[in-house]
Amino acid sequence: MTDTGDTGGEPFQVRLESTDEFYQRVGAGAADALSVRSEAELARLFAPANVRLLRELGGEEPTGLGDLAAVLEREEDEIADALNVLERFGLVRVDPDENGRVERAAVRYDSVEISIPLE
Prior knowledge:
The relative contact order is 0.24. The protein has 5 helices and 6 strands, in the order E-H-E-H-H-E-H-H-E-E-E. By secondary structure, it is α/β, with parallel strands linked by helices. A hairpin with a 5-residue loop joins strand 4 (92-96) and strand 5. The strands form 2 sheets. A 3-stranded parallel β-sheet has the order 2-1-6. Strands 3-5-4 form a 3-stranded antiparallel β-sheet. It starts with 11 loop residues before the first strand and ends with a strand.
């Protein structure tokens, strides 16, 4: 995947943790990862369709909505909704058109690291 320059090549870090664990980590000065509170939320964010979308965005240039819909065989509105969610979580950069709809999008990270405590 192409590094877009805004992450310095660092992986996007996601932690599955409780609210208490999150506040303990942040209170200790370690606000270095996205906190996901449940397995269901983690599964929605990294559903196979979203992972495929992220991988498709890893090309050389920001990708247009129509191109993504064609390649992924999904509706443009569905792709736009997914991109907006991924942007809110910080995984992608979305460039809107003059109407505020998705015009182009690009990944912000080269990889994702997920931490799931087993204890």
